[in-house]
Phosphoserine aminotransferase (Pseudoalteromonas denitrificans DSM 6059), 360 residues
Amino acid sequence: MSVYNFCAGPAMLPPEVMKKAQKEFIDWQNLGVSVMEISHRSEPFLELAHKSEESLRRLMNISNDYAILFMHGGGRGQFSAVPLNLHQEGKQAVYCQTGTWSFSALDEANKFTQTQKFNIRNDQNSVASVIPVDQWQLPEEASYIHYCTNETVDGIELFDVPKHASAPIVADMSSNILSREIDVNKFDLIYAGAQKNIGPSGLAIVIVKKDLLSRPGLAKPGIFDYALESKQQSMFNTPPTFAWYLAAEVFAWLEANGGVAAMEAHNRDKAALLYDFIDNNDFYQNNIDTSCRSLMNVPFLLKDESLNKAFLTQSQNAGLLALEGHRSVGGMRASIYNAMPKAGVEALVDFMFKFSKEHK
Ligand SMILES: *Cc1c(COP(=O)(O)O)cnc(C)c1O
C-alpha cells in the first residue's frame, strides 16, 4: 500500500531527495564522513552553501539587489527578527490580518515595536474571504507592511501583492514559497520556515533587499541580525548544516523537474482536483471564497461532524496520513505541497468518495 503524508508541517519531502540523502548519509562526496560531520567553513560545505544560493536565485529569479540568508529559528524566529531589524522610531509596523499565522506574527512584533493591526478579512455568510489587495487602504506612513501569503491553518492564499509608496513589503511565505511563480521584485523581504516546502524544520530562508540592511532597527541577538548574517554569509555562528544540505538537495530536485513554473502547474492541477471534488459532493465542504483558496493547504469539513473520527481512522488505515485539521479550527486539512504527487491527491479523492457512499 502506498502511504501519502498530508501533514501541514514538518511535511513530506520529495522521495528522490530522501533516498539520495539516505545513500549519502555516512559518506558524502566520498569524504568518508557525513555532511553533518564536517566544518561549515570547509571547502565542500562552502561550495554547497554557494551552490544552494545560486540555485535558489535561479528558481525564484532573485536579483543581486537581494541578499539570501539561511538562518536559525524557523518561521517564528523571523516573527521576532523582522521587527528587530526593521523597527523605525516613531513609525508603526502594519500587520495585515488574514488568519492564524498573521495573528501570531503581530503578537510577537508587539513585544518589540509599535504595530498597527490591519484587518483585511471580509467574511460573508460564514465563507472566509479577503478584501482584494488593490482595495486595501494602507496607512501612508509605516516602518513596514507585513502580511502572510498563505495561511497554512485557515487555507487562505493571497495571490496579489500589496504596494506601498514608501514602506517595505514583508511577506511570510513559510507555506507557499517555491509553489508558484512570484515576482520577487515586488517584495522587500520574504521569509519562510523550511519545513513545508524546502526541508527540515529549524531552518529559515530570508530574501532581503540589500538597501534594508542599513536600517539600524533595535538591539538584537547576532543570529537574528540580517546585516551581520549577510556580511558573514549566514555563518556568524554554525548554521544548521544538515538542514541546509537537504534544502540544497530540494532546490536541485526542483531545478531538475522544471523549476517553479512546472511546480505551479502541478500544484494547480492537484488543488483543482481536490476542490472540484469537494464542491461537487454535498458530503464535504470548504468554506473559503474561491478567490483566495490555498493551493497548498485545503481545509474541509464533513457536513456530519459526528463522522470525523471514523474518517480519520479509516483514512489513516488507507495510508492517507495526517488529515486532521489544526486544533484551532477542527475538521480536516490536506496539505499538498510541492512534494505531494498527483497520485496522492487522487488516492485521497477516491477515499473521500468511497467514504461518502458508505455513510450516506
Ligand atoms: C509553519 C508556519 C510558521 C511557523 O513556523 P515555525 O518554523 O514552526 O516557527 C509561520 N508562518 C507560517 C505561514 C507557517 O505556515
